[in-house]
Amino acid sequence: MLNIVIFGPPGAGKGTQSLKLKEKYGLIHISTGDVFRALDPESELAKIAKSYSEKGNLVPDDITIKILESEVSKHPNASGVIYDGFPRTSAQAKALDEFLLRKNSSITVALALEVDEDELRNRLKNRALQSNRPDDADPAIIQNRIDVYHRQTAPVAEFYKSCGKYVGVKGIGTIDDIFSRLCMAIEQLTAQSSKE
Ligand code: ADP
């Protein structure tokens, strides 16, 4: 199974690249942000999630982990999964490892899109013009998402580095250039593991 975590700050291009990776490698794409946005807006869960996301804060781990596990369980025959926007905290990373272990599976690689902050702010500002996402529209909320990323999500990189699964990829350039870099990283890794 090819289980990929696509990692990076808001605006790094995780969603865009995930769709291309999904296509090329025949993976299931699970974006926790998309899952939260697709909830029935009248449901209690949607209201709770929105109360956090509209301020640019993370939805609590217990809720997010349950949602993620239920999404993965919808695809028992998947040949691989791309995790987009999850894990976003060390507790989520640990929970994902334990969940996969129970299924005799594991994360293959965490691909981290590296983009500097000025570029991130620009991209989110532009996305706000098209996306209809309230969390993209307000510079103070964008800043909070970037701060939350540094505070709560950046430690996840250390988690994957410590188990040798972290691969940093330059997230600047054309969409196709970045996609080629990601594919190269995956193919190097799968070639390596088939030799072992
Ligand atoms: P971004 O484009 O900022 O990466 P996403 O679409 O992935 O945003 O997520 C939007 C919002 O959904 C986040 O700001 C957060 O409130 C919530 N969210 C998404 N994934 C998670 C997660 N793994 N843990 C907690 N909250 C999450």
Written overview of the protein:
This protein has 196 residues and is an alpha/beta fold. It has a single domain, classed as Rossmann fold (3-Layer(aba) Sandwich), CATH 3.40.50.300. It contains nine helices and five strands. It has helices at residues 14-25, 32-38, 44-53, 61-73, 90-102, 117-131, 134-137, 139-162, 175-195; strands spanning 2-7, 28-31, 80-84, 109-114, 166-170. The protein is globular, with a radius of gyration of 16 Å. It binds adenosine-5'-diphosphate. Residues 10, 31-33, 36, 52-53, 56-59, 64, 85-86, 88, 92, 135, 145 line the site of adenosine-5'-diphosphate.
Furnish the topology, listing elements before pairings.
Blueprint: E1 2-7, H1 14-25, E2 28-31, H2 32-38, H3 44-53, H4 61-73, E3 80-84, H5 90-102, E4 109-114, H6 117-131, H7 134-137, H8 139-162, E5 166-170, H9 175-195
Parallel strand pairs: 1-3, 1-4, 2-3, 4-5
Bound molecules: adenosine-5'-diphosphate.
